């Protein structure tokens, strides 16, 4: 057998770390018989500029009581404002649990309930906040499967039992912009896949407030993935549907949990949805492809990565859980790997079809030890950002009974940043103890949970948030020498910021004077594509600024032309044109160069092209 399934309390987790292992969910551990075959030495890049506590044990809660987040076991998500979003118990008051956000200003309740917890069957006597469908919030759900979903605007997706309502449970969306709640779905609702919903599970939410979630059906498909958008449900996929390339889906979410009230909830692997409305999910299928990740784009499903695909560490993917999806179309995921017919391993990977990169694999050297532990990829936790950086947890093995857990950032080049390490100091004092294996990262900010022995304020554990330093822009690629023999040159000044309306200028010099021009840009990385007799330095599609003019001396033609565009102003809409929304999304990677007319060359090569600048949109 390749794997041994072991269920142990967290107190015994250290015993697992003398063998490679994967944290499946909560305190479920699976050992992996991975051979010792290190692939590369990890490098470290210092990119974290700040780390602070955001929701800790014994912290005062508005309305009374103190927070008990058990942050090393109840994962947190992070929104676009850098707020940690999580479930927690509250001690000392009857309103004893809720969904909260926290940042430097303190704890803010989203929804507060009471009773004995979600699925217990014991309600709280109407003491919770009112729900949008009647009754009051009662028990909420904690643990790996029920992490609240969130997005850049700060909306929050969560499940709750309901006391004295029309249904006993529902999936809800809190809209931060209007401070209002909406019901997404509940058992008994009519399903767009046919029949009614017998159970509703958690899900993911994108920046537009669109939700994708798991459900079980009665009188229709047994397993369903549904999309909710402004009150309208549509089917994404269901068991029995045709799979891409042949066969049918046999499962579209095979993990379920039973509760003491006799109910069952489908809990994973959860789908994901990005700002473009693209959706990923993990099905099992009866065709030539038995499992993998499907991406649905414009309503059309395609296999994005499968167990038939080759991996960057050799062999083929053996099993793939959920995939985290960025707005740039990259996914990040943990996968078991069949290196050879008798040899297995595993690790984290990211990229797009045909271009997968290894982030970290079992037995890779890191921080003076070797990588021996991972967490499964689990939505709605956000792991991969638009710049290709991924947040993961690992356990580093230094020898028998000597290991340390670490929260890492791994960028698109493979450079690794250690955000937090077990036994090192925390911003609350004390040291990091057990670290939560499911961190979250969005828009140059991240969050993770940890036990914090010795911390101030009686903080036994806490959620932490951090901010990354925005990388310095980079000039790259080759300009096209113009018809007068001058080499156009691009430059930049200032700093990119999604919150500013000025202050980051990209400029060009040595251009032909008095010619029409554009700043052209892409959001899919670098490239070297022949274009107009020169080089297009970024991957298509090409996007453009408003029309520009090079200016310079009066005729005759010389190389006195110049251009300058404040990209903060352009992204904010101040300069006109139609800027992509990603230009004002922190963490987006932008590649740009200037295009201008050069009538000294014959068509179709009668253009001038500068070299390029690549930058990351800052906060």
* Alpha-carbon Rg, integer: 26 Å
The coarse overall form would be globular
Number of helices: 2
Amount of helix: under 10%
Low-confidence parts lasting 5 or more residues at pLDDT below 50? 1-16
Q: Please, what is the average pLDDT?
A: 93
Approximate strand percentage: over 45%
Q: How many E-type strands?
A: 50
End-to-end separation: 48 Å
User: Describe the biggest sheet?
Assistant: 8 strands, mixed
Helix-strand category: mainly beta
Question: Can you tell me about this structure?
Answer:
With 619 residues, the chain is mainly beta. Among the domains are: 1-56 and 323-377 and 381-469, no CATH class; 474-616, Immunoglobulin-like. It has 2 helices and 50 strands. Strands 1, 2, 3, 32, 33, 34, 35 and 36 form an 8-stranded mixed β-sheet that branches. Strands 40, 43, 46, 47, 49 and 50 form a 6-stranded antiparallel β-sheet that branches. A hairpin with a 5-residue loop joins strand 15 (196-205) and strand 16 (211-218). The two termini are 48 Å apart. The relative contact order is 0.11. The model is unreliable at 1-16 (pLDDT under 50).
């Amino acid at each position: 057998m390749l794997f041994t399934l072991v269920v142990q309390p967290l107190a015994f987790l250290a015993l697992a770390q003398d063998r490679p292992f994967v944290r499946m969910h909560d305190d479920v551990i699976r050992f992996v018989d991975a051979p010792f075959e290190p692939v590369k030495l990890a490098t470290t890049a210092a990119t974290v500029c700040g780390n602070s506590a955001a929701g800790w044990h014994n912290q005062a809660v508005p309305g009374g009581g103190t927070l008990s987040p058990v942050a090393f076991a109840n994962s947190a998500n992070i929104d676009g404002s850098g707020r940690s979003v999580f479930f927690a118990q509250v001690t000392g008051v009857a309103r004893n649990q809720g969904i909260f956000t926290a940042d430097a200003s303190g704890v803010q309740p989203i929804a507060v309930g009471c009773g004995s917890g979600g699925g217990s069957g014991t309600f709280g006597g109407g003491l919770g906040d009112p729900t949008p469908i009647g009754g009051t919030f009662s028990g909420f759900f904690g643990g790996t499967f029920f992490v609240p979903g969130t997005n850049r605007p700060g909306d929050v997706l969560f499940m709750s039992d309901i006391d004295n309502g029309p249904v006993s449970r529902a999936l809800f969306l809190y809209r931060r912009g209007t401070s209002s709640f909406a019901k997404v779905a509940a058992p008994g609702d009519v399903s767009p896949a046919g029949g009614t919903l017998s159970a509703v599970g958690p899900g993911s939410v994108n920046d537009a407030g669109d939700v994708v979630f798991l459900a079980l059906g009665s009188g229709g498909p047994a397993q369903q993935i549904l999309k909710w958008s402004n009150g309208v449900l549509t089917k994404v996929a269901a068991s029995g549907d045709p799979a891409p390339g042949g066969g049918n889906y046999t499962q579209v979410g095979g993990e379920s949990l039973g509760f003491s009230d006799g109910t069952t909830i489908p809990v994973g692997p959860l789908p994901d949805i990005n700002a473009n409305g693209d959706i990923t999910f993990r099905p099992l299928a009866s065709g030539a492809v038995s499992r993998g990740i499907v991406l649905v784009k414009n309503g059309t499903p395609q296999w994005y990565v499968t167990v038939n695909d080759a991996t960057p560490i050799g062999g083929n993917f053996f099993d793939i859980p959920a995939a985290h999806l960025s707005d740039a179309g990259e996914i990040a995921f943990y996968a078991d790997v069949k290196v050879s017919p008798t040899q297995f391993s595993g690790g984290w990977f990211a990229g797009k079809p045909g271009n997968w990169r290894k982030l970290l694999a079992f037995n890779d050297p890191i921080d003076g030890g070797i990588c021996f532990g991972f967490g499964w990829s689990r939505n709605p936790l956000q792991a991969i950002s638009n710049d290709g950086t991924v947040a993961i947890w690992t356990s580093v093995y230094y020898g028998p009974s000597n290991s340390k857990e670490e929260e890492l950032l791994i960028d698109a080049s493979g450079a690794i940043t250690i955000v937090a390490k077990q036994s090192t100091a925390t911003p609350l004092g004390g040291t990091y103890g057990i670290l939560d294996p499911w961190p979250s990262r969005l828009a140059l900010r991240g969050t993770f949970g940890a036990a914090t022995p010795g911390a101030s304020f009686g903080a036994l554990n806490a959620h932490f948030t951090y901010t990354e330093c925005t990388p310095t822009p980079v000039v790259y690629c080759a300009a096209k020498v113009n018809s007068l023999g001058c080499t156009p040159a691009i430059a930049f000044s200032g700093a990119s910021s999604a919150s500013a309306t000025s202050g980051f200028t990209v400029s060009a010099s040595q251009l032909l004077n008095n010619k029409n021009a554009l700043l052209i840009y892409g959001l899919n990385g670098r490239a070297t594509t022949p274009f107009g007799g020169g080089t297009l330095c970024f991957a298509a599609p090409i996007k453009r600024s408003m029309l520009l003019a090079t200016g310079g001396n009066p005729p005759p033609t010389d190389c006195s032309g110049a251009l300058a565009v404040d990209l903060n102003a352009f992204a904010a809409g101040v300069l006109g044109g139609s800027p992509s929304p990603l230009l004002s999304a922190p963490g987006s990677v932008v590649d740009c160069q200037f295009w201008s007319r050069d009538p000294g060359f014959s068509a179709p090569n009668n253009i001038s092209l500068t070299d390029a600048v690549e930058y990351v949109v800052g906060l």
